[in-house]
Every structure is written in C-alpha cells, then in structure tokens.
Design brief:
The protein is 31% helix and 17% strand. It is built from 10 helices and 12 strands. The longest helix is centred in the middle third of the chain and has 14 residues.
Length: 318
Amino acid sequence: MKDSNNRTIKYMRLSVTDMCNFRCSYCMPEDYDVKTHNLSLEHIELISKNLNKLGITKVKLTGGEPLVRNDICDIVRVLKEQCHIEEVTLTTNGVLLDKYLDSLVDAGLDAITISIDTLRKDDFNQLVKREQFDRVIENIKLAVASPIQNIKLNCVPLKHLGDDNLLEIIKFADDLNIPIRFIEMMPIGLGRKFPGYDQSSLIKLFEAQYGTSTSSFKHYGNGPATYLHFERLNIEVGFISAISNKFCGDCNRIRVTSTGHLKQCLHYNYNIDLVETLQTSDGLASIRNFILGKPKEHTFTDLKQENIETLTMSEIGG
C-alpha cells in the first residue's frame, strides 16, 4: 500500500520479545527493568496475515533478542507458510545461532543479520556484560557456511572504541566475504549518552584505509542502507544514517512492538494496539488509515518536538 506521502509500505520490523541475553551499555544495561513482553505465536499470525492483506510482504524479526524464544523457528514457518510473507529475515546478536541455525534453514529463513560492535574480546565482553565473544565469532562463521545466502553484519560505531576498531571489523567482514553495515547511533533512550560517528566521518576514515569509494547498486536487505564499494575491499559497505543522512523520503517500513502495537515511525509515540483493533468490525480499515498517516519525516534534531517516543529501543524493537 501507499501512505499519504506516496511511499510504498511493504516492510515490517516485528519485535517478538523485549528480552535479551546481552546487556549492552547503550541499550539494556544490567540494572534495566525488563518488562518481558512476548507476542504469542497466534497473535503474530493474526497480525501478519492481516498486514499482508495491506501489502506487507517482507518481515524482519527483531527484539530484544529474537533467539531467546524457543519457538522462533515456528514463527518463521508460520510467517512463510500461513501468512504468505515472501521474505522473512532475522537480526540477532548471534550467541544462540548454533542452537537454532539448522532449524531456521528448514523453516525457510531468508537472511540473517548479526550485530557486533567490536572484535576486541575484552571490549566486547565489557560492552555486552557477558563472556560470549568466542561463541559469537564461531556462530558468525557457522552462519556464513550455512545454506542461507544472505548473511551480513551490523555494527553501531562507538567513538569510545576508536577508529581502529571499525577498520578491524571491516577487515573481518572482508575476510568472510560478507557485507557489513554501520548504523548511526540513534538518540533514543540510553543511546543519547553514547557519541557515535556520522556517515561522512566514516567514509573519510574508510577511504584513507581502503581507497576511493563508489556507489554500489547492490542491495542486501529491505531497509534504507546506502552501499559503497571501496577500491581495496571485496565487499560492499553499508551505511544506515538516519540523522546525518536522512532517508525518510524512501522509508518503506512500519514497526510492531513486542506488545503488539503498530508504530508508523521510530521517532514518534503514535501507535495502535493491533490485536484489539483487529477485533473490531472495521479493524483492517482502521489499520490502513493509521499507516496512511505515517509522518513525512522524523525530527530527532528538534528537541522541542512534541509526541517524541520515550520508550527504549529494546521496548520498541531494534
């Protein structure tokens, strides 16, 4: 379907839980009060079947950490077989991939994105507050060797870890021959306290190490990443820079939280309860009208803006 700004909305980020087995400093620290919301499999099917009728054909499973759910493979299978979703993908911290990878392949999962912000073991364990570095690295390699063709890395570049940290991660991705994307730190929740990099600074850093960059026409996901090719790399490097390189004009997504609330835009607190709405006689029409009202753009830089979302990323869905 088209929204009121003529953008085709076909991509849903679906948070299946707000639980996580990591405690990343900028997302869910040790003292964070986890609410523990999990959409039931029945509600996931209800929501996804109906949103498919409105044109949603691609779903990204997020959290929290989606692999903390022991029915994650059932969720993938239901989305593919019962809800007619053409492409089901997953974002994960990777620590449980060895447990579920074969079953995810059997269920029909189309792609996996693994998040990792540093390759320095001590920094990694300190950042996530868990001793899981070795397992995550081995699971990244398992995923690359799996039948799933679309494997990529996500990295949130953090200033306090330094420039060399980012160059090490690119080298790791290049050695594995998989694309990597750098996601600008969002000024939401605890993220406001962690300085990051803007896109132009990253490109300048990478060009100094890997040569001139050129735009790439390759695309490795459903979201708004811009990909560049650097002359001394074999892989494409993606940038998702919602603040420094605003992409609202091309936004094709909606978000569903682990409480079953539909959000039009990450920045604003507008939402509707999908399960409750679908129980009404004109529920699907109401949802269509809500999506039609998707804001033209975010205004993260306007600190006086009203209706700003106050939930954290783990509550919204990463």
